[in-house]
């Protein structure tokens, strides 16, 4: 069943991954080229590699894979979640001495 | 469950850089290769490395191979018919002491004999090249023609290239045994069935020792998790790929993201863990911020871990083994494998089709460890930066 969201997605130039600015067309091309998981769409197009790490586009990409390949949405493998859960600045990881002074 | 095909000229175990490149070359040469992987395409080092193609700082025996590999890389996008995002970013191998600089000076002349252009830079010249680099760096060896490529696109390019020539792939299939009769390979037994073949290429990377044991062959590799930190993008401040022995590798992508790797090696953490290691994040971050302080406030958006298969001397293991006819080894790349991708596939194809290679590979034979002639590699695991 086509729902309203898929009609909205009719525009091929529509950006699905906002962080890396990857369009619907690019993602469809990757799926047509054999990418049948969110991880492989990411690896081929960069969708999900940006600042939000696929939190926005991941579910949409999974849905597009399900639609295009005939897999059930539950069968489409999501991308691996990796630390950090949210962005953290490098400097808070700097080793500190006993007085809390960064050694760097 | 798909049933495995019953026969193949060559069975390649492992769909990483080595296996994919070998599959492409063999299929193109008219041999019928079948690649088996317990998971899928480029799931380990081939898809987890930072994409650096480095000529500098190689073992003398690897130099002719990297020179030949560079020639192949330069034509590879055209050959495979796809964009691999190859760019000439260059490599800077940082010297942290005057002694490091002396070692690097010795390499310039050695490598020039092979046509590699590399330069020893003093501290000011390093600053000119990359003003963001701090005084911790005394100078370095710079190779302007070293390359970068996108490992995912390289894997896909070889995969599709191999398939165009008729190469076959079995993913999600695990090798559980090898049938050997009268010291000759007869078949590969998988969890989906048995494949008759007289030639097996063991390109299973950190698991190549398990495949070796199925043939009664001891393959001395140590798996070591290598961890990457990826940051949000910032305007470009680090043009070359930065290599700091025992400390970190670091590069900034064309889009501005910063990759920081921990260069873990035997003597450090061993095993197959894919979990992000907090202690290693702290060590690497503390060190890299001393070298490039301008990265300080960048947000980390992802970390990941890949397993490197280290050999006892840091050189890879290559070629047929005496004990079992038809068993060909290509593993233990010790973190140097990605850059060698095009030439290793070519050499494996030569071994299979001609029984000899166009470049010297004697130094990489497995039995070098039996003769006791090999010195152990001096790994630079877990160094700390102490003084500027």
List the helices and strands and how they pair.
The complex is a heterodimer of chains A (104) and B (388).
Chain A: H1 4-8, E1 15-17, E2 22-23, H2 24-32, H3 38-45, H4 58-69, E3 88-89
Antiparallel strand pairs in A: 1-2
Helix pairs in contact in A: 2-3, 2-4
Chain B: E1 10-13, H1 17-28, E2 33-36, H2 45-48, E3 52-53, H3 63-80, E4 91-95, H4 98-112, E5 119-122, H5 123-129, E6 139-143, E7 147-148, H6 151-164, E8 168-170, E9 175-181, E10 184-190, E11 193-196, E12 200-202, H7 208-214, E13 222-231, E14 241-244, E15 248-252, E16 258-261, H8 278-291, E17 299-310, E18 317-320, E19 327-331, H9 337-354, H10 368-371
The main sheet of chain A orders its strands as 1-2
User: What does the overall shape of chain A look like?
Assistant: elongated
Tell me the quaternary state: heterodimer
Major sheet details of chain A: 2 strands, antiparallel
Short description:
The complex is a heterodimer of chains A (104) and B (388). Chain A has 104 residues and is mainly α.
Report what the structure shows.
The complex is a heterodimer of chains A (104) and B (388). The longest helix of chain A is centred in the middle third of the chain and has 12 residues, at 58-69. Chain A has 4 helices and 3 strands. Helices cover 33% and strands 7% of the residues of chain A. In chain A, strands 1-2 form a two-stranded antiparallel ribbon. Chain B is of the alpha/beta class and 388 residues long. Chain B is built from 10 helices and 19 strands. Chain B has an 8-stranded mixed β-sheet. A 6-stranded mixed β-sheet of chain B has the order 8-2-1-12-19-18, with helices on both faces. Chain B is globular and about 65 Å long. Classes of the chains: A mainly alpha (104), B alpha/beta (388).
Task: Summarize this structure as a short list of keywords or feature phrases.
heterodimer; A: 104 residues; mainly alpha; two-stranded antiparallel ribbon; 4 helices; 33% helix; B: 388 residues; alpha/beta; eight-stranded mixed beta sheet; six-stranded mixed beta sheet; 10 helices; globular
């Amino acid at each position: 069943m086509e729902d309203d969201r898929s009609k909205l997605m009719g525009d091929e130039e529509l950006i699905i991954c906002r962080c890396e600015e990857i369009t619907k067309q690019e993602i469809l091309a990757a799926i047509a080229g054999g990418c049948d998981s969110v991880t492989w769409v990411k690896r081929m197009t960069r969708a999900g590699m940006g600042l939000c790490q696929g939190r926005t586009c991941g579910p949409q990409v999974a849905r597009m894979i399900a639609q295009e390949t005939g897999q059930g949405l539950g069968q489409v493998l999501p991308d691996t979640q990796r630390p950090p859960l949210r962005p953290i600045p490098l400097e808070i990881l700097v080793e500190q001495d006993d007085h809390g002074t960064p050694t760097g | 469950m798909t049933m495995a095909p019953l026969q193949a000229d060559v069975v390649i175990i492992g769909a990483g850089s080595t296996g994919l490149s070998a599959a492409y070359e063999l299929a193109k040469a008219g041999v019928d290769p079948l690649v088996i992987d317990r998971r899928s395409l480029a799931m380990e080092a081939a898809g987890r490395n930072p994409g650096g193609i480095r000529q500098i700082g190689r073992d003398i025996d690897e130099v002719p191979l990297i020179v030949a590999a560079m020639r192949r890389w330069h034509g590879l996008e055209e050959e495979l018919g796809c964009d691999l995002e190859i760019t000439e970013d260059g490599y800077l191998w940082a010297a942290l002491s005057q002694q490091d600089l002396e070692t690097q000076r010795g390499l310039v002349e050695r490598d020039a004999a092979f046509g590699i252009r590399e330069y020893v830079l003093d501290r000011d010249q390093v600053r000119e090249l990359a003003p963001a680099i701090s005084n911790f760096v005394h100078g370095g060896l710079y190779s302007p023609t070293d390359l970068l490529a996108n490992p995912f696109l390289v894997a896909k390019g070889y995969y599709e290239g191999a398939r165009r020539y008729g190469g076959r792939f079995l993913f999600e299939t695990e090798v559980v045994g090898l049938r050997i009769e009268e010291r000759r390979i007869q078949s590969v037994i998988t969890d989906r069935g048995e494949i008759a073949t007289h030639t097996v290429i063991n390109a299973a990377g950190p698991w190549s020792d398990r495949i070796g044991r199925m043939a009664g062959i001891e393959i001395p590799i140590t798996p070591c998790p290598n961890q990457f930190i990826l940051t949000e993008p910032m305007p470009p401040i680090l043009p070359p790929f930065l290599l700091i022995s025992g400390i970190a590798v670091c590069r900034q992508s064309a889009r501005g993201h910063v990759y920081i790797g921990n260069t873990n090696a035997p003597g450090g953490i061993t095993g197959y863990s894919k979990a992000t290691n907090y202690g290693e994040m702290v060590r690497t971050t503390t060190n890299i911020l001393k070298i490039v302080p301008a990265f300080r406030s960048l947000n980390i958006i992802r970390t990941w871990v890949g397993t490197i298969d280290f050999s006892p001397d840091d050189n890879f293991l290559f070629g047929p083994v005496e004990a079992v006819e038809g068993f060909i080894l290509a593993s233990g790349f010790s973190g140097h494998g990605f850059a060698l991708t095009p030439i290793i596939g070519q050499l494996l194809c030569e071994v299979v089709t001609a029984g000899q290679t166009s470049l010297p590979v004697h130094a990489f034979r497995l039995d070098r460890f039996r003769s006791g002639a090999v010195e152990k590699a001096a790994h630079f695991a877990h160094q700390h930066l102490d003084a500027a």
